[in-house]
Write the structure tokens for this entry.
Amino acid sequence: MIFDVQSFSTHDGPGIRTNVFFKGCALRCPWCANPESQERGVQLFYTKMKCIGCMCCAKACPNGAVSAYIDPEDIQRYGYVRHDRSKCDKCTTHECVEACLQEALAVCGEMMTVDEVMAKINRDSPVYRNKGGVTVSGGDPLLHPKFLTELLRRCKEDGYNVALESELCVPTKNLEMVMPYIDYYLTDCKIIDPAEHRRIVGVDNGVILENLRLIGERCPEKMCLRTPIIPGYTDSDENIDGIAAFAAMCHFRKMNILPYHKLGVTKHERLGTTYTLPSVQPPSDEHMRHLADIIESHGVECIIN
């Protein structure tokens, strides 16, 4: 299940890249910028700013999942249309999308074969063959190890540089299957304390740290360890110091700290879900530099993005 194949990306690995985004993630980070990546199945996107309230979608829906908001305050907040997500996200036909003349509705997620994904990658290859490559991301592509292994094998056969963006919250055997094909790892280490990690993102970080240690033992030079700086969640001196000490122990050469942003807010709205950090503000430049100094005190290069 793929939710996007993005061409001409310059953010997830060296050079110009094609990013393949898989659906499904074991973590539930409240600041997630791609909440549509968390669930494995198809989801419905509704863009209220495009909707004119014609209700053609309601007429087309075979499941009675669409109704109209009447109260002006509800319309202002939610748009003209109410969706029963328990029905919409289980729908296999989505007639409503075809019926919407304003393109206010879209399906997020598509079942694709390796051949279909490779066709999209090969379409872009003249742009990045010598200066970029392919990044597999998500969600977490390692939740689909057999498909991913075949995809990456094909990428390497065609001579593409391959970057893996993964939370590594997967069985170690999944990681080992794809390691022969990876040129570059992009992995978050968000919270070093196991109890805090479980409290905030919903799962323990034990397997994540185990997989990071494995990469540190075999190919630390390929890792770019990243920490999103979320005020009140990941930005304490103690957390950053602990992550930097772990990075140094694994012989990772650099860390990338990324300031919090609110790009996930609009996507939560389109999914009909609630964004739980509306009052959190991005960290100051001074605080980011302070955290970078802590990291570099461990002999790890810090990059602020």
User: Anything to note?
Assistant: Residues 36 and 170 are 19 Å apart (CA to CA).
